[in-house]
Amino acid sequence: MTATAPDGARSFRWRRRSVLPGFGLSLGYTIVYLSLVVLIPLAGLGIRSASLGWTQFWAIAFDPRVVQALQLSFGAALAAAVINTVFGVLVAWVLVRYRFPGRRWLDAAVDLPFALPTAVAGIALATLYAPNGPFGAILDHWFGIKVGFTPLGVVMALIFVGLPFVVRTVQPVLEEIDRETEEVAATLGARRWRTITRVIFPALLPAILTGFALSFARGVGEYGSVIFIASNLPFQSEIAPLLIVIKLEENNYAGATAIATIMLVISFAMLFVINLLQAWSRKWFGHE
Amino acid sequence: MSETAQTRKVRRAIGEGPATRIVLIMVALVFLGLMLIAPLLVVFVEAFGRGIGVYLQALALPDTMAALQLTLLVAVIAVPANLIFGVAAAWLITKFDFKGKSFLLTLIDLPFAVSPVVSGLIFVLLFGANSALGPWLEDNNIQILYAVPGIVIATIFITFPFIARELIPLMEQQGSSEEEAAVSLGASGWRTFFQVTLPNVKWGLLYGVLLCNARAMGEFGAVSVVSGHIRGLTNTLPLHIEILYNDNKAAAAFAVASLLAMLALVTLAVKTLLEARFAGEIAAQRRH
Predict the structure, then answer these.
(1) Nearest residue to A218 (alpha-carbon basis) of A173, A270, A259, A167
(2) Are residues B150 and B194 in the same domain?
(3) Most buried of the four, A141, A238, B6, B15, by CB within 10 Å?
C-alpha cells in the first residue's frame, strides 16, 4: 500500500519516511477527487475565458453596467469587512477576556451565519429592513436612512454573512496570548491602553488581517442573502454575481464567463494573500 | 497609599475597569442581537405569525414536499462523498510529510474562494449544450444540467472543503504517535484508522459532517444556476423559498425557511454541546 513505485527508495525522497500505511491510497484518492470535482471544472472556465480573446473580454469588462456591478460588489464587501473587523475584534475580545451570564450562548450565536442558509437570511433581512419593516421604519423615520432596496442593504447582508470569519480567526489567537507579557508591560509602567496598542494589537494583527480578508472575499461572491434586500436594478443595487445570473438567463455565455473570470482572478489573488498572511503569522507567532 | 487603592491600580494596569467591561459587553450584545439574533427571530415570527394552521398548510403543499425530498436526496449523496474525501485528505496531510503539502491545502480551499454563482456557472460551461461534453451527453440521453445530477455536483463542489478543514487541524494537534504505536504492534492500516484515529476525532468529524450538511441543504447560488427552477422537479428548499417569496406568499416562504433555520439551530446546539464535552476530554488527556 505504501510503496507504489517500483524504485521505492528513489520515490521516497520527496517525502519523509513514515511507518504509517496509506500514503499512496490517500494521495491517489485526494488528487483524483480534487481534480474531478474542483480542478477540471475550474480549468474549463479558464479555457472558455481564454477563447474569448482580449478585445471581446475588455469590451465586456468595461461595459458600464458590469463596471458598476463590480464596483458595488467590491465596495459593499469592503465596507462590510471594515465594520466586521471593528465589531468582530470587539466580540472576540469580550468572549475571550470577560465572564458574564449567557457568554456561551453568545459564542454559539456567532456561528449562525455559517449554519443559516443564505436564502433564509436574505428574506429575514429584507423583512427587517424593508421601508415598512421593524428596523427599516425606525431608520427611515428617525434618521432618514433607507436600507432596504439600496446599496446600504447590500452592506447589511454582507455584514451578516462575513461576521463569523473575523471573530473565529481572532478568537483562538487571543486565547493563546500569554497574559504574562501584559503583566510585564504593566510592571514596566505601561498604561492599559499602551499595553493594548503596543503589546496585544501587534500579536493579533495577522489574525485580524486574515479575518478581514476572509470576510471581504466571502462578501464579494455573496448572492443568496443579497438579492432579496437589494433592488437588483441596473446602476442602482445590482451585484456582480446577479449580473452573471442575468447574462446566463439571456444565454450570453461570453458575458457571464468574462465577469466570472474577473471575480475569480481577484478571489484567487485574495486567497493567495490570506495564505501568505497565515504563513507570516505562523513564522512570527507560531513558535512561542 | 492604602492596600485597596494599590490592588485597584494593579488591576487597572492589567485589565479594564468594570465600567469599560460593561460597556464593551453591552456593545457586543447589542451588535450581535441586532445583526444575528433579530433576523433569526423574524424567521420564526413571520412563519408562525398567522397561526400554526397556516404554517402546516404551507409545509404540506406538494411542491414543498417535493423540494424537501430533493434537498434530502442531494445531502444524502453530497455529504458522504465529501466525508470520504475529507478523511482521506486529512490522513494524507496530517500523517505524512511531503513536498507540495501547503500547495495541496490551498487547492482544497479553492471552493471557499469561488462565488456560489461562479461555481454554478463552471458546471453550466462544462455540461451545457454548447460545451465540449454537451453534444455527447445529449447523444447518450444523459441529463446533468437542469436535473438532479447537476444539483448534486454543484453541491459537492460548494461543500468540498468543509469536512477536510474541520479534521485537519484536529488530527494535526493529536499527532501520529498513537497510530505509530498501533502499527508497530502489528495492527493493519484500516484497523489503526478505525480503532485508534476515528475514536480520537469522532466529535470533530461529527461537527464537520453537520456543518457540511447544513451548507449542502441550504446552498442557494450555485444550485440556483444549475437547477433550471422546475417546480416539483429541480427545486430544492432554498429555491422554493425564493419562489414563494417572489410570489408574495411570504408566510409560506418563512414557514419553509423555518425548517432550514431549525436545522441551523440544531447544528449550532450540537456544536456547543460537543465543545463543552471536548473541554472535559482535552483536560483528561492532559492529565495522563
Answers:
(1) A270
(2) yes
(3) A238
